[in-house]
């Protein structure tokens, strides 16, 4: 069988040795007699897995100690709701709409409070990233939201927006772990495909 270059899992092809290791451990993960999918999330074996995963993420991304790492169920669409549900204090979020995912997040936030579109590239079918150097950030905004990489339209933020002191929330689902990230510039980042959430502890 000839393997194809498949990027459905993210920004890189999975190495064959990783796939073979996963296949070998499907029947028996490290001598437990079961796969990871079958074991209790309260077991020592799973506790080791999740702790090592967090340690690896903290190492790879240089995540500061004042950030929490959460592994969650659901994908990015669920997190479109989780952001306002968890971060709204004044009930206001400012959104930079550069593609379908940011648009969906913006529409979801409107169900929980006020969502302001402070910039958008919808006028040219999301074919560019708007100027984000001096945005009309709301004084009472709880956060400023971006989807950093827009795979459908082929655009990506090269410079983060000036949030004027408001925390930056970023959906990194399609570019997570594909390049170095200064986590300290964000109040919250999430990656839907990996179902993880990294948030500064306020």
Supply the key terms.
single chain, 202 residues, alpha/beta, Aspartate Aminotransferase, domain 2, 2 domains, seven-stranded mixed sheet, two-stranded antiparallel sheet, 4 helices, 9 strands, 25% helix, globular
CATH architectural label of the largest domain = 3-Layer(aba) Sandwich
Tell the overall outline: globular
Structural class: alpha/beta
- Specify the number of helices: 4
Give the C-level CATH assignment of the largest domain: Alpha Beta
User: How are the strands of the largest sheet arranged?
Assistant: 1-9-8-7-4-2-3
Radius of gyration: 19 Å
What would CATH call the homologous superfamily of the largest domain? Type I PLP-dependent aspartate aminotransferase-like (Major domain)
Total beta strand runs? 9
Count of discrete structural domains: 2
Q: List the secondary-structure elements in sequence, H or E.
A: HHEHEHEEEEEEE
Largest sheet composition: 7 strands, mixed
Strand content: 15-25%
Low-confidence stretches: none
What share of residues is helical?
Answer: 10-25%
Q: In angstroms, what separates the terminal alpha carbons?
A: 52 Å
CATH topology of the largest domain: Aspartate Aminotransferase, domain 2
What do the pLDDT scores average to? 91
Can you offer a commentary on this structure?
With 202 residues, the chain is an alpha/beta fold. It folds into two domains: 16-58, no CATH class; 64-200, 3-Layer(aba) Sandwich (Aspartate Aminotransferase, domain 2). It has four helices and nine strands; from the N terminus they run ααβαβαβββββββ. The strands form two sheets. Strands 1-9-8-7-4-2-3 form a seven-stranded mixed β-sheet, with helices on both faces. Strands 5-6 form a two-stranded antiparallel ribbon.
